[in-house]
Amino acid sequence: MVYQPGELKAIAYKHGKKWATQSMKTTGPAQKLTMQADRAKIQADGNDLSYVTVTVTDKSGLPVPRAKNHIQFSVEGPGEIVATDNGDATSLVSFQSPERDAFNGLALVIVRARAGQSGEIILKGKTDGLAPCETKITAALKK
User: How far apart are alpha carbons 25 and 39 in whole angstroms?
Assistant: First the structure.
């Protein structure tokens, strides 16, 4: 069988009826980074966290599963990076490092608001040769 780019689609049937579908498309070369925070608003208590997934994507926004780009992270505003990770169990990089290689096109950044400091936290990510990304997280004081 010869490899050809395209789409692979799997369909599962249960009792003769379509039950689930899943598809994968061939991606193009890595073009940009994207960020998605699990929570865009956190408490400014020094404990609340936002988990931000960073994805290396192609020009169509599809995740590039073999990407291993070295990503540097920074924060502006009343927050800090607590940890970074990528799911690679063989990595010896400290969780406190503000830099991380993508693993299978993914990385994770955990952000915390500084206690008593409300406002907008801007998390930025950059890597050589790709468009950078950023996301905003609001730190709010309890009322």
Answer: 28
pTM reported for the whole predicted model: 0.87
Is 14 inside a domain boundary?
no
Q: Number of folded domains in the chain?
A: 1
Pairwise CA distance, residues 62 & 3, whole Å: 19
Lookup: tokens for 64: 């590039």
Residue-wise pLDDT for 125-138, tens only, equals 999 999 899 999 99
Residues of the domain holding 85: 27-140
Q: Of 54, 77, 83, 66, whose CA–CA distance to 26 is shortest? A: 66
- β-partners of residue 33 are 56
pLDDT tens-digit map of 25-45: 889 999 999 999 999 999 999
- Cβ atoms of 105 and 65 within 8 Å: the answer is yes
**Residue pointed to by tokens 């950078």:** 132
Report the distance separating Cα 8 and Cα 117, nearest Å.
Answer: 48
CATH code of the domain covering residue 56: 2.60.40.10
Is 85 a residue whose pLDDT tops 80? yes
DSSP 8-state class, residue 44: S
